[in-house]
Amino acid sequence: MRVPLHTRIADGLARLGALARFHENQKSQAEGLSPLQARALVVLQRRRGIRLGDLARELLVTYGTLSPAVSSLEEKALVTKYVDPEEHRAVNLELTRKGAAAARRVEGWASELLAPPVADLDPDEAATLLASLLKLIRAFERRGTITAARMCFTCRYFDPKGGKGARPYFCNLLEEPIGEANLRIDCSEHEPADTDQLEGRRQA
Q: How many CB atoms lie within 10 A of CB 179?
């Protein structure tokens, strides 16, 4: 029986996802955290001053699921809550110094798991894999399935045709051409491109 390509890709991603969850469960238990709490720390490390509701959307969980996890992080002195100065009914979250240290430990878990097998790939294969993952995430974003990631493809500094050869793109923030291996999924300097920029890239 011929199995559709998207089904085989889904099977592969599901297998890797199961492995990642197993690894995350082991590591989070050793850290005294739940997997959800660990993921929340990583996002808070990258998104300072994020609202509780926005954090829930980022993690693809409900507000009701996330709220007790965050309260537990607050009890452990890893997170602090404060009222949003622009909207008094909204609650913002920030890491404490202790929480930032925990977030740095947690953030390395995925890299620790993936580093050896990715090192076995040819550099061009690894770069192509990254670019394909970015495009797949972008496709989910367009469908509203996941919240927008701070990736190169959606950044106002990104020029999809500004480079040449092995570095076909150009980053106007770095002021240099970049290749697929340089693309980022979550960049702290990301600034959203406007509608016209995104539409132009879609048609390119």
A: 15
Rounded-to-integer distance, Cα 52 and Cα 67, Å:
8
Contact 169, 152 (CB under 8 A): yes
Distance CA 56, CA 66 (A): 6
Tokens of 32: 């005294």
Give the C-alpha separation, 30 to 91, whole Å.
29
pTM: 0.74
Which tokens hold the place of 144?
């509203």
In 3D, which of 168, 199, 201 has the Cα closest to residue 183? 168
Per-residue tokens: 16: 């890797």
Q: What is the pLDDT of residues 5-62, one digit of tens each?
A: 999 999 999 999 999 999 999 999 888 999 999 999 999 998 877 888 889 988 989 9
115, β-bridge pairs: none
Beta bridge partners of 192: 155
* 3 state DSSP class of 84: strand
Average pLDDT value over all residues in the chain: 89
Q: Which domains does the chain have, with CATH numbers?
A: 5-109 (1.10.10.10), 122-203 (no CATH)
Q: How far apart are the C-alpha atoms of 128 and 94, rounded to whole Å?
A: 35
Burial class (CB in 10 A: 0-12, 13-18, 19+), 7: exposed
Residue 204 has pLDDT above 60, yes or no: no
